[in-house]
């Protein structure tokens, strides 16, 4: 029978097809759409808009983590970012491809310096020996909305500015520029903070436990209103952005090269890389800041376990740090590892190593970032924030 | 009796009164019917009140194929890979030429009869029909009334302007040198 020739019966013809399908089926269909077509469908009708914004659908949608990495091209542009989606377990659901930052001014001379819950903080800096021109940009790489920020008053360490953005609490973001301490013993932290709510930088000083002078932070995480940054060998500093309070947390063991912090499933993770051993520590209770050793793996054993191509094995053994952890999955017990041209993930629960991507040229992951790590499944938007992170920057007045 | 060795038949009646006689194994592909048959609460003719004859024909075609697959799956040399490929190809062919209103009816039918495989096929087909389209095309396709005021629609469009971009690089800004 030719199905195309069928004419609708009375039960369907006088109804719109979407109400005939019912909300459950329609939600099922919408839930399988890629992210862009899904957001296009918001303007179909009020019902569709409501379903797409609903909790039920938001829980189904998820964006895979992905990262921007710097692609070193010799004799050409100094740096260009590429985006790679790190979806695993054969599911490309929620994977986002084709993200270019070329919509930003001065690209590719614009450098990513931080990312936080879907937004990126970028810096453009140009010096001709005498004068220095700079600008910060905060952008949503998915929606391509961006704003330019004026520079802070303090002219040192532009690239150590940190981004604080939690769409579950507020639609506004902050940029925190910690000033370099000059004293032998630091007893207070001086900072300049830009708020998108006011559009201004505000200088402030906050007393803290005495610590040795520190470098400006390049590794930080923002969690529950506190910016945790690593700038001392023995400590993490926690800076409560809205209350201006500082705390000092001692590392559970000596911090090594390539150590980093991460928020995974609502806990602070500290991933330390000691020779060929990776230790993963976590803080589950931020009122006590007690460390628990969650996982430990030996990279040498890992090397033997998997059939890494010979060149990679060779390099890993010769160049100690060419096979090392660089990030942690925001929702699963999995660490991301980098070798010369490849990215792997190691799953602690199943003790398996998985190759995620392979580049033809060396990867510079010093500048990696996970722009979409907060999956929509855990997302509870602030009532004043627009539906979802892709729209969040829109409320902020554009400054060209 | 000789008839007892023959396959047991089940009769289904569509919403528009047509009666279909199918093997019990075919009917049991639909979980809803399976439950009824196993609890023995099925009448001589099972009324499928929300499914019209042409749709029920299509549903039965699907169920017949499932029964055939499950009885002949051991004949291929490389069952896993080939069945997977074949399954995909078959699914595509099965849904070929199905228009949106038929598809909606198929979806409702497979949802009601609880045929997961058919539902999945239908949802995937619907996703492929929707994803390249613009809101107005969707409204035409689904017979949906646009109940936004022009201002409201404009606002939602603006909020989600990024999702309407076809070419991610289209707005290339000229950088300073």
TrEMBL record, chain A:
InterPro entries: At3g26010-like (IPR055290), Beta-prop_At3g26010-like (IPR056592), F-box-assoc_interact_dom (IPR017451), F-box-like_dom_sf (IPR036047), F-box_dom (IPR001810), Kelch-typ_b-propeller (IPR015915). Residues 15-61 form the F-box domain. It comes from the Eukaryota. Gene3D superfamilies: 1.20.1280.50. CDD domains: F-box_AtFBW1-like. PROSITE patterns: FBOX. Pfam families: b-prop_At3g26010-like, F-box. This is F-box domain-containing protein.
UniProtKB/TrEMBL annotation, chain B:
Residues 117-163 form the SKP1 component dimerisation domain. Pathway: Protein modification; protein ubiquitination. Keywords: Ubl conjugation pathway. It comes from the Eukaryota. This is SKP1-like protein. SMART domains: Skp1. Belongs to the SKP1 family. Residues 8-65 form the SKP1 component POZ domain. GO terms for biological process: jasmonic acid mediated signaling pathway; protein ubiquitination; ubiquitin-dependent protein catabolic process. Part of a SCF (SKP1-cullin-F-box) protein ligase complex. Involved in ubiquitination and subsequent proteasomal degradation of target proteins. Together with CUL1, RBX1 and a F-box protein, it forms a SCF E3 ubiquitin ligase complex. The functional specificity of this complex depends on the type of F-box protein. In the SCF complex, it serves as an adapter that links the F-box protein to CUL1. InterPro entries: SKP1, SKP1-like, SKP1-like_dim_sf, SKP1/BTB/POZ_sf, Skp1_comp_dimer, Skp1_comp_POZ. It comes from Aristolochia fimbriata.
